[in-house]
Amino acid sequence: MSTQIKRKRTPRENELQTAIVTSLQSWCDSNQISCTSMEFYANQQGVGLGRICADFVATLNDSELLLAEVKVHQSGELLAFSDEQFKDDLELELMGLPILYVYNKTEQLAYHQKPKPISYAAETLKAVNYSSPSLLQDAFPCIDKHHNLLGWLKKVPPAGSNITRFAELFGVLRSEALLSNGLMMLIYGTSKVSFLEDLNGAALNKIINTLSHGAAGKYLNKNDQALLESFLKEEATAFSRWYKPNKLTPNSRPRNGGSSSSPSP
């Protein structure tokens, strides 16, 4: 899996993302859905442990997560489509992360009309499709086989009615700014250990401090690995791809003093 910083975004992607996020927030406010979104810069994105594999995230009723990769669709093709990034996203999906590609179905969205129609939020979201990486396959989406984002939002359960695994952790985390690939792996890539079983929260807080956005580096050091193994038991293997590579040669010896701290992102 690549650990490089994600490529720079194009102006058209920024415009589309603004339309989607603004419409998402407006529609949720009008439909009594709590929604908090956060958008990320290129140097915050990627597939490293402490980065985020999306252009923006939105938490809905503190129980559902929209993890969105934005693409501009034109003449049947997703522009600026990266095969390397797509392979990474496929792998993350297989690991359990709910990443979705979102793209426009039409050239002009209601959000961009002057003046905006009163129902611009619903109309914009209805004109934006979503697809998991595995159902997308490549840069040429089968539009008729994908559903729109408005339909996805309508399936979000009412607040307090769905105690998801994400809701368990977010109840402790309380900030989208801390979300990272590492924390999402803790939520979606493991299942046997309940966060609520850690009654005093000490172990969970240590895990969050280790994996949160801006704190974690590209890899886990030996102490981080031991902490995860003690908390998650055999499910800690979900993080093995982020174990720091062993670069020792046959003639080299490790330094004294144990493992070093995680490198900065």
> What fold name stands as the CATH topology of the largest domain?
Trna Endonuclease, Chain: A, domain 1
Low-confidence stretches: 248-265
Largest sheet: 6 strands, mixed
Question: Order of strands side by side in the largest beta sheet?
Answer: 1-2-3-6-7-8
By CATH reckoning, the class of the largest domain would read Alpha Beta
Describe the global form: globular
Query: Number of helical segments?
Result: 9
CATH architecture label of the largest domain: 3-Layer(aba) Sandwich
Percent strand equals: 5-15%
Average of per-residue pLDDT values: 82
- Measured as a percent range, the helix fraction is 25-40%
Distance between the termini: 16 Å
Total tally of structural domains: 2
Please compute the radius of gyration using only Cα atoms.
20 Å
DSSP, total strands = 8
Structural class: alpha+beta
Could you walk me through the main structural features you see in this protein, from its secondary elements to its overall organization?
The chain has 265 residues and is an alpha+beta fold. It is built from 9 helices and 8 strands. The chain has 2 domains: 11-154, 3-Layer(aba) Sandwich (Trna Endonuclease, Chain: A, domain 1); 165-242, no CATH class. Helix 1 crosses helix 3 (120-126) and helix 8 packs across helix 9 (222-232). It is globular, with a radius of gyration of 20 Å. The longest helix has 20 residues, at 11-30. Residues 248-265 have low confidence and may be disordered. Helices cover 33% and strands 13% of the residues. A 6-stranded mixed beta sheet has the order 1-2-3-6-7-8. It has a two-stranded antiparallel ribbon with strand order 4-5.
